[in-house]
Hints:
Residues 1-24 are annotated as: Disordered. This protein is α+β, with helices and mostly antiparallel strands and 109 residues long.
Amino acid sequence: MDESPPQQPPKPEPPTTTNLPPSPLSRRSFCRLCCYTTCIVLLILIAANIFYLIYERSLPQFCLTSFLVPTLNVTESTVDGPYLNTDTTSRVELRWLRVNEIRFERVLP
């Protein structure tokens, strides 16, 4: 008789995808990338602000052009005291002055 070795069942193949947590190395590299990106963005913003302050600096000038009070009613209330009811309309202009247009005036006593 032919004696052959007993056949063993085939081994199962390992799964191709696993749901393992990310390795600490990939977490560190992601954090490093976020830090570098944040630093670069902050440096660009600081440089842009410095450029703006040097070349485009201007100050606002506010002018009150009109102020109207068409209705002004004061009524005496017995509980809370006087009651004021009014309608007002105001108009404000905002102008931006260039650096070379700024004038300083000194008022002498």
